[in-house]
Automatic annotation (TrEMBL):
It comes from Amycolatopsis bartoniae. InterPro entries: Polyketide_cyclase/dehydratase, START-like_dom_sf. It comes from the Bacteria. Gene3D superfamilies: 3.30.530.20. This is Cyclase.
Length: 169
């Protein structure tokens, strides 16, 4: 049977969302705290701002160090590409013009609380996943599908953790 999923060049995306019984300002403080993210992630181990930045702003950069059983350990530099307080925080991984991934948190007021969405896109720039695809090009669609499902589960877990932190504050 032929696999019919997305290819890396398709720039596949994943999106998850949740409603949080907390004001956008409280949720915003959590999603823009990149130092908090490793405690919510099974892959991300450490994050630090670069160039003297103390927090997010368009153009600010941060380095992330990650680990995955199948992909090994790696480090990437991300560039903040969208920053609208209490609304949108997004970053491009590795290269602004040809990122290996783009990640975004979006907040919207919802019934006295906040609807929080996390979205990510693979590619178009090369990433660790590209090396796996290079080794097994016939399995590209399956490799992409599995990685997207991993991201979907991780993002679901991250939003659940953020919801708990925001609602318990």
């Amino acid at each position: 049977m032929e696999w019919t999923g997305a290819r890396y060049a398709d720039r596949p995306t994943v999106e998850v969302r949740t409603r949080i019984a907390a004001p956008p300002e409280r949720v915003w403080a959590l999603v823009t705290d990149v130092g908090l993210m490793p405690s919510l992630s099974s892959e991300l181990r450490e994050v630090e701002w670069l160039d003297g930045a103390a927090g997010p702003a368009v153009g600010a950069r941060f380095v992330g160090r990650s680990s995955h059983e199948a992909l090994g350990d790696w480090e990437t530099t991300s560039h903040v590409i969208e920053y609208e307080p209490c609304r949108t925080f997004a970053w491009a991984v590795s290269d602004v013009d040809n990122p290996s991934a783009v990640w975004r948190f979006t907040l919207a007021p919802a019934g006295g609380g906040t609807e929080l969405t996390q979205w990510m896109q693979l590619g178009p720039g090369r990433s660790g996943l590209s090396f796996a695809i290079d080794r097994m090009p016939e399995k590209e669609q399956k490799i992409v599908f599995v990685r997207l499902r991993e991201f979907e589960q991780a993002m679901t877990n991250t939003l659940a953790a953020l919801k708990k932190l925001a609602e318990d504050a």
